[in-house]
Amino acid sequence: MSKKQNPEQDLAKAVKALAESYKKHAKLNNIDRTPLPSRDAVRQIIRHLDELIFPGYIGRQDLTWKTVGRHLEGLLDRVYSELSEQMFLCIRHTCQIAQQDSECSHCEDKAAREAMTFLKKLPEIREMLELDLQAAYDGDPAAKSLDEIIFSYPGMRAITVFRLAHELFVQGVPLMPRIMTEIAHDDSGIDIHPGATIGKAFFIDHGTGVVIGETTVIGMHVKLYQGTTLGALSFPKNERGEIIRDRKRHPTIEDDVTVYSGATILGGETVVGKGSVIGGNVWLTHSVPPGSKVVVQAKDQKITNARGERIVP
To answer: Are 55 and 68 in contact (CB under 8 A)?
Structure first.
């Protein structure tokens, strides 16, 4: 006959075991340290930024030129407050880890300054996004209107959040840019690191499975299809066996390049020259000159220049 279970006793043992695990595996904890930013709060900030970027599309749809000023004043004030609070949590947490000091008096002032600096960039970000929007319309014959792209295209969703997060990344705000792009990744299936550099009129068609690494540099009028990876080769390590960071690990894609679905382009020294076309399922780990066409034919990957002449890597 089995022993009678004692749920309270078993639960007490589970609590003790898990508490001991917290001490043993402390890298998984944020205990007895400053609070972290809230992912839900950052998602709400993105929602409000969307409303500032796309007024009349996101949020209130009854705006007129007579009411937009007052609406902007209230919304900007709210976003400034939310941004300042979450930036403060990001900055203070990072500062505490670096200095082992929770009494970081300058963090709140820095967060307020960075939030205002960011908000002043919104007109410039909107200018970039308008070019991205037009590139999507010009590059996709299935698009019936700009409205459709704003409302429904995952590429536009991912690029919008990237443009916002990138500015925070450039400002040196920790944690929040990556949280933002990972939220966009969840929503769109497109993974763009906020540290990437992406030029004007950028279009991602379909988008699912696109990966763009931190040190990627993309020029103007570039078009990517679903499943494209702009990634790194194997990571070099230092004498302690640690990955060497802060070096260019991802490719450069010059202006007017099209990369078709499933293509993988790797390496920090890899440059895809201006006007090139990279075909579907290509695996590319070396540079190609401007005007190249790289395709896979059966088991043979064929590279030609702008005159149709074959290039041997």
So the answer is: yes
Among residues 79, 37, 43, the alpha carbon closest in space to that of 183 is found at 43
Whole-number Å distance between alpha carbons of 199 and 274: 13
Write down the residue that tokens 């749809």 correspond to.
61
Q: Which domains does the chain have, with CATH numbers?
A: 29-189 (1.10.3130.10), 196-313 (2.160.10.10)
State the sign of the Cα–Cα–Cα–Cα dihedral 297, 263, 138, 257: negative
Cα distances from 46 to residues 40, 58, 209, 258, 292, in angstroms, run 10, 11, 22, 29, 39
Angle between helices 107-120 and 68-99 (to 10 degrees): 140
Q: Give the CA radius of gyration of the chain.
A: 24
Strand partners for 301: 296
Asked if residue 132 lies in contact with residue 151, where contact means CB atoms within 8 angstroms, the answer is no
Of the two residues 119 and 36, the one the predictor is more confident about is 119
pLDDT digits (tens, 9 = 90+) for 152-186: 999 999 999 999 999 999 999 999 999 999 999 99
User: How is residue 251 written in tokens?
Assistant: 């490719």
The span from the CA of 313 to the CA of 272, in Å, is: 13
Say if strands 229-231 and 211-212 run parallel, antiparallel, or are unpaired.
parallel
pLDDT tens per residue across span 265-304: 999 999 999 999 999 999 999 999 999 999 987 666 677 7
Angstrom CA distances, 193 to 37, 51, 178, 188, 313, stand at 19, 23, 7, 14, 29
Residue pair 165/194 in contact (Cβ under 8 Å)? The answer is yes
Enter the tokens of residue 275. 């006007």
257, 276 Cβ separation under 8 angstroms: yes
